[in-house]
Amino acid sequence: MGELPTDKLRTARLLLRAPAEGDLDDLVTAMRDERVRRFLPYTPEPFGTAEAVAWRDVETPGRWAAGGAGFAVADGTDDRLLGGVYLQHVSPRRTDAEIAYWLAPWARGHGYAAEAVTAVTDWALRHGIARLELLAAPDNPGSQRVALAAGYRREGVERGGGSRPDGTRYDMVLWARLATDPPGPTPRLLPDLPGDELSDGVVALHPLGPADTADAYAAQRLPDVYESSVPPLPPTLDQVRESCGTAQSQWLAGAAARLTIRDAPSDRYAGEILLLYTEPVTATGMIGYHLARDWRGRGYATRAVRLLAEWAFEHAGLARLEAGAALDNTGSQAVLERAGFRRVGVQLSRRPGPRGTRIDDVQYELARDR
């Protein structure tokens, strides 16, 4: 690959260009935003005019001098600064690089990041880059959505792939796009919910997120909930916080859809339901669920299972669902049978139980076309 040209790029709504004098005030405001600082931990603190000038006159030209690229993302109509996209860690020998970006708070929610990253990605691939990587924190689903929209594929998790100025490290999700990949967004195994909700008017299912941490912690600390989980141990608050914070990452990966079960009229938390996409090659998934104590005996679990199964078949394209219940958990068995699942047998010592025991599981199945 040759040296990357210092181009301007235009998209339907954006102009990607060199930083300008008129960007400086907006840059200062953007770099003081809590979300920007959270996911760009090496942003200078405090960030003022001198730092903005350095971004324009030193940092961005330095990216080009090092063989990379640096674009200010501006509104294509009024030229206001909206963000930045960079190519870094360029290896001419390996013809690969890393793409990174940030977006100002006033620019979010309009698809600008995906539009800009797609433009720079396509431009880099045209100019000899064979592989581009994009790293995103597991609790940053917005950045992972950008990766999907720009045609990147999830390859795994880099343990300790991110670092902070204090020396601590954190995991990063690795996405990559090759010059040989087809154009357009990356297809998803598990789509979003229509309208971000499933509801029958009595029960509503919403994607699990960080705001659910307190409710999820209280429910998952109940002995009859955690003893039927794997492992059968009470979780810590930090574990539940991480689980809620990364639930959307797992959804975007196509691995699992985790949802809260809520009372539809009041929007109160009632429990959780999970779809694990256990076997994409055969379009098979597994369902699990639990309810907080005050919401049991009202038919909420049955309604939730029906709603999730319908979505799995009609929107996610699954062909069959599996579920299990302990031999002595007749309540859960009744839920599955009322939801249309068929009992197919018992698996001996299927999963770990409390205090080193093993639990037999009654197995249930539900098929889309049966």
TrEMBL record:
Coiled coil: none
CDD domains registered for this protein in UniProt: NAT_SF (cd04301)
SUPFAM superfamilies reported for this sequence: Acyl-CoA N-acyltransferases (Nat) (SSF55729)
A Pfam family that the UniProt record links to this protein: Acetyltransf_3
GO cellular component, one term: cytoplasm
GO molecular function: protein N-terminal-serine acetyltransferase activity; protein-N-terminal-alanine acetyltransferase activity
Origin: domain of life: Bacteria
InterPro entries, A to Z: Acyl_CoA_acyltransferase (IPR016181), GNAT_dom (IPR000182), Ribosomal_N-acetyltransferase (IPR051908)
N-acetyltransferase domain mapped to chain residues: 14-177, 220-369
Entry protein name: N-acetyltransferase domain-containing protein
Organism listed in the record: Actinocatenispora rupis
